[in-house]
Amino acid sequence: MELAYIPSxxxxxxxxxxxxLRGYAFCIIIGVFVAVWLGNRRWIARGGKPGxxxxxxxxxxxxxxxxxxxxxxxxxxxxxFGEGRNWxxxxxxxxxxxxxxxxxxxxxxxxxxxxxxxGIPLPAWADxxxxxIALAQAFGRWGNWFNQELYGRATDxxxxxxxxxxxxxVAGTYHPTFLYESLWCVGVAALVxxxxxxxxxxxxxxxxxxxxAYCVGxxxxxxxxxxxxxxxxGLRLNVWxxxxxxxxxxxxxxxxAKLRPGREEIVEPDRGPAAGDAKTLTGADATxADATxAxxxSVAGDKTPxxxxxxxxxxxxxxxxAERADAESASGTASETASEAKKV
Length: 344
Known about the structure:
Blueprint lengths: L12 E4 L2 E4 H23 L6 H24 L2 H4 L18 H19 L3 H19 L1 H6 L13 E3 L8 E3 L2 H23 L5 H20 L6 E2 L2 E2 H23 L15 H69 L1
Antiparallel strand pairs: 1-2, 3-4, 5-6
Helix pairs in contact: 1-2, 1-5, 2-4, 5-7, 5-8, 7-8, 8-9
């Protein structure tokens, strides 16, 4: 008897007139906005400029979507190119099917292009965005719930997800592996944020920690899934991919910490004028300075003598004239006195 379970939506699309609103697409869009928002906050905290994360995301997101779809189609080609299949379905991304490994790989190419155009280091940008990517995956996994796909083995646990009858699926209650991975990604985001604050991770090590931590969870979650997949030595292909990528991330963490300890002091240097412009401006400034200096000399040469004659000379002359006048007056008075004395 089923006492409790997680119900699945009856449909993954709502039609707003002729426009279909798909739950899978909404989950991806919400995840992208959350990743950019958190990445922007972390980038500014590292000394970057507002808007840089969004500008580079314009390159990274389309590349990531194409890469994720390519990985899914290549690794599950039998779903689109097998007998009785329609290859056109490979382009119907709204029906689900994105491989995170392809999304990260090709998304990194787009991010590299954006970083080159802005003149900033890709590892620093990746470090700022790492926990946001984990949260974007957490939101994106709920798109599988809308499409009733990628669930695990049958179970009667209270948190089992109820799947209805449909193409390539049998009605029943199953492990909600989409929920497990969503919660795991939230934990990965929290781990990266904590470790980055505690150890000041830089030069791509925060991103490498995210990759390694995600791979650990993806390995055991992938092992629980029952959807069709290729197997190598008894393990699903994505399990092997998780193991290989985990090892590469750990190796990068160790080597990077030894070769480039600490973190970048400047993640987004100011972009001044070009060298040619700087030289031109410098020459113009020098010319202006010379002209100003010449004018100053001319002013000094023309005005200094006049100042001495017009201002200093009268000040020095006034006392001498006054003394001479007083002397002449005294002499005249003495002559008059002597003349009067002779008369007497």
